[in-house]
């Protein structure tokens, strides 16, 4: 099962349960239970200049990836200003509040497990009677060892030539370690944004970059994935059907859905990818060609002749 769609600001609206608890808040849900997902909800959200979302508690975990503007998040005694390429994880049952200044804000919002559809029986979002006490907003300080829920994506961090050299201990915004390493293979670069390192337990979020000729051949997973394409043109083959994905396009693949990606262009292509539940320690990929290879090996010398039908000569 899969779903292909596109971010469209014209489809964003204030969710019914947020009416009376927010000002200038709009959201477009493009992956969720209504589209076949059992594990995740993906949305594009926005706050108008001077907007706010009252203090809220969820029964799900979520991460916020800032697309533009400035989003002020108050949570766990901190008030931080999130800007483009900042990522924040809001754990289950943690009270938080969103506001914005004159620039407004736009962000991607990933929730796991899947958000409940609004009905009279079950709720997953609860509003506090009073707003949280917000202090002076501070930028995200990635070198502060107390930081447990925030990450900033540095576009230069995808450049392997830059990463091949030693760094000045005083220079980076975050101390270099395996926790901040980029995974690179077959022309593909991956940089984690939200995972257990920043207290996410139910999902992951990461940046993917394909160099020219990069390819991920047909495979599937024991979890769901979503992809929000941000740069270049990516050829996606999903259950044998071909798509060309461009910035603003969105793809969701369910568990067991075969998919592949190729960069057939002269430039790089890039997207934000999410997974839910988090991948297991082993067997998170099942490549179709590996199992086809095994099938061919096991069938050598064991070809079964067609059964004869009564009356055949």
Protein model, in words:
- A hairpin with a 2-residue loop joins β16 (234-238) and β17 (241-245).
- This protein has two domains: 8-150, Sandwich (Jelly Rolls); 154-162 and 178-293, Jelly Rolls, CATH 2.60.120.
- It has 313 residues and is mostly beta strands.
- Strands 2, 3, 4, 5, 6, 7, 8, 9 and 10 form a nine-stranded mixed β-sheet that branches. A seven-stranded antiparallel β-sheet has the order 1-18-15-20-13-12-11, with no helix packed on it. Strands 17-16-19-14-21 form a five-stranded antiparallel β-sheet.
- Helix content is 5%, strand content 46%.
- It has two helices and 21 strands.
- The model has no long low-confidence stretch (mean pLDDT 89).
- The chain has helices spanning 160-163, 288-299, and strands at 2-6, 22-31, 41-58, 61-75, 78-82, 86-90, 96-112, 125-127, 138-139, 150-152, 183-185, 188-194, 204-210, 215-220, 224-231, 234-238, 241-245, 249-253, 259-262, 269-276, 286-287.
